[in-house]
Amino acid sequence: MISFERKIKFTTNLKETLPLYTNILRGKQKCTYQLSKEIYVKEPFDSSTPLEKLWEFHKILMIKFHSIQDKTINNEIQEDQNTNTNKKQQTLLDLKCEIGDRILRNCILCENRCEKDRKTKKGKCKVGISPRISSIFLHHGEEPELVPSLTIFFSGYISQNSLNGQIMDPIELANTIQKYFKRCGKRGMRNMNWVGGDPIPNLPFILHVLHDIKENIPCVWNSNMYHSEEASQLLDGVVDLYLSDLKYGSDKCGKMLSKRRNYCSVIHRNLLQAQKSGADILIRHLVLPTHINCCTKECARWVAQNLGISTRYNLMFQYRPCYKASQIEDINRKLTLEERKKALKVTQESGLINFVEW
Q1: Predicted confidence (pLDDT) per residue in 335-355, tens digit
Q2: Position 271 pLDDT exceeds 70
């Protein structure tokens, strides 16, 4: 393992690096999705309410959400919200669930925007109306801040076998997650980690699961971040920590290697929105052979200049050619020692002060 001598901040100053996540773990702050349950809708809505109207409600309520989120003491929130005695009144999270369900009829959750009616057929993601969960387990191989992490792994999307796994309804999964948490405690289970494939095709389902969770468990969104602006709006007020891939430093590389159009503009837009939402961000960059200058260097530079030099950033050297990668000359081999050294050098030169090799 290549290394260089310097202190790693995240091991000693987690509060500064991931402040929201840390406050939730210490019981000083509510999870964002729990807070969304305390923002009430003034005008009732149902399945007949036009989607445009629902988005209008959402915009207004998110302004209120962020004004409350900025308060440091949640007792103030309780006092303000408990004046409403109607426990059946609809909330911001109810509204997000309704909008998510509507979007499935003409799906635009990911930036492919296939517009398929996923209530009757699968989208380009190969995911239908009933998500399949391939595994739920306590993961000890994630970043130190996250483990042990209860990982909920969906089939489909990037995963090659979309039929793998079991179908669970939201209440069943919510109960399963809470049983883990009660059995393990905060030290034995620090968060719930939504991953795939990619979790974005299953966002409406996940919103319903979060609706049924009563515990204050941090929500980690483990994603390639190639989702739509509409999905970003639904995630705002739900996610506590974005565990984000940042693979490529140019649209050309994103198109050539992952068949993603406008890769950089989409991912950058969503990362900036994630930061604006008040959530914490942890970036992963997988170093690819022959892509040090175009991708590794550019990714580190963009993060340092746009998200800040203190952003938690993992430089990953685990790449090995799998599936069709062996057919692409650029990436059909493992990294050389010189490439690993250069990747470390250009990342350090970007100005990032909170990155580690992993």
Answers
A1: 999 999 999 999 999 999 999
A2: yes
Q: What is the pLDDT of residues 4-51, one digit of tens each?
A: 333 334 444 666 789 999 999 999 999 999 999 999 999 999 999 999
Residue with token string 């290549």: 2
Residues 301, 272 contacting (CB under 8 angstroms): no
Residue type, position 260, single letter: R
Domains of the chain (ranges plus CATH)? 1-9+246-358 (3.30.750)
Q: Contact at 8 Å (CB) between 289 and 339?
A: yes
Question: Helix, strand, or coil here: 222?
Answer: strand
- Three-state DSSP at 76 gives helix
DSSP β-ladder status, 149-154 and 132-139? antiparallel
Residue 124 vs residues 141, 203, 274, 322: alpha-carbon distances, Å:
30, 15, 25, 22
Instruction: Tell me whether strands 312-316 and 355-357 are parallel, antiparallel or unpaired.
Output: parallel
Crossing angle between the packed helical segments 203-211 and 170-188, to the nearest 10 degrees:
70
Count CB-CB contacts under 10 A for residue 284: 19
My answer on whether omega of the bond before 148 falls inside 30° of 0, hence cis, is yes
Residue 15 pLDDT? 67
CA distance 120 to 213: 28
Asked if 343 and 287 count as a contact pair (C-beta separation under 8 A), the reply is yes
**Percent over 70 (pLDDT), the chain:** 89
Q: Which residue bears the tokens 């994103």?
A: 254
Separation between Cα atoms, residue 180 and residue 142, nearest integer Å: 18
Q: What is the DSSP-derived secondary structure letter of residue 139?
A: E
Q: Could you give the 3-state DSSP secondary structure of residue 12? A: coil
Residue type, 206: I
| Residue pLDDT, tens place only, 284-293 | 999 999 999 9
- pLDDT (tens digit per residue) in 89-142: 999 999 999 999 999 999 999 999 999 999 998 888 888 888 899 999 999 999
- State how far the Cα of 183 lies from the Cα of 178, in Å rounded to an integer: 8
Q: What is the pLDDT of residue 20?
A: 96
φ and ψ of 149, to 5 deg: -120, 125
